[in-house]
Design a protein that fits this description.
The chain is mainly α. Helix content is about 45%, strand content about 5%. It has 5 helices and 2 strands; from the N terminus they run ααααβαβ. A two-stranded antiparallel sheet has the order 1-2.
Length: about 180
């Protein structure tokens, strides 16, 4: 026996012999501990499930059928097989029957519609209008009294309430007009 092998626990020796039987000769010593942890966790999970199944069946102790059921449920839950090749080929044929959309040729790289991208506006800003101060109102009245006669009078104009916020949204990636 090699050095340090006699101080290994029995389970670690079993893992080491399994690795050797599979042709794995070069590995780090931590690999044995990782396999042992995986092994113990799996056994505890299976035995816990078997105990639940045994209690559900009102049995006084866990028996072989409970363990088989627990292992089968672990296999069904943890490992799944890919679909058969024929099924995949049939799905591919059905999908490929639908023609691709015609491409719109234009300048640059073709991009999807703006509604399907992440650069479309996704927010709104609420910008409150400023209330007029008394001084600003006086200046406005003075401007109206001494206003230019060529401009039409704004006496009939009704102002909207000043407390309603104005909603503004900006597209993030919009092109600038040149």
């Amino acid at each position: 026996m090699a050095e340090g092998e006699e101080e290994l626990p029995r389970d670690a020796k079993i893992v080491k012999s399994l690795l050797k039987s599979m042709g794995v000769d070069d590995y780090e010593p931590r690999v044995i501990n990782q396999f042992l942890e995986l092994w113990y966790r799996y056994v505890v999970d299976v035995l816990t499930d078997a105990q639940v199944y045994s209690e559900h069946a009102s049995k006084p102790a866990i028996d072989c059928d409970d363990i088989k059921l627990a292992i089968q449920s672990k296999v069904n839950f943890s490992f799944s097989q890919p679909p058969a090749r024929e099924v995949l080929l049939e799905l591919a044929r059905n999908r490929n029957k639908i023609p691709l959309p015609k491409s719109i040729t234009g300048l640059g790289i073709p991009l999807p519609p703006e509604r399907d991208t992440l650069i479309s506006p996704n927010y709104q800003l609420a910008i409150p209008k400023k209330k007029r101060t008394a001084q600003a109102m006086e200046e406005t009245e003075e401007d109206e009294e001494g206003g230019d006669p060529s401009q039409p009078s704004q006496e009939g104009r009704t102002d909207l309430p000043q407390h309603t916020p104005q909603r503004v949204s900006f597209p993030i990636g919009a092109k600038r007009q040149r």
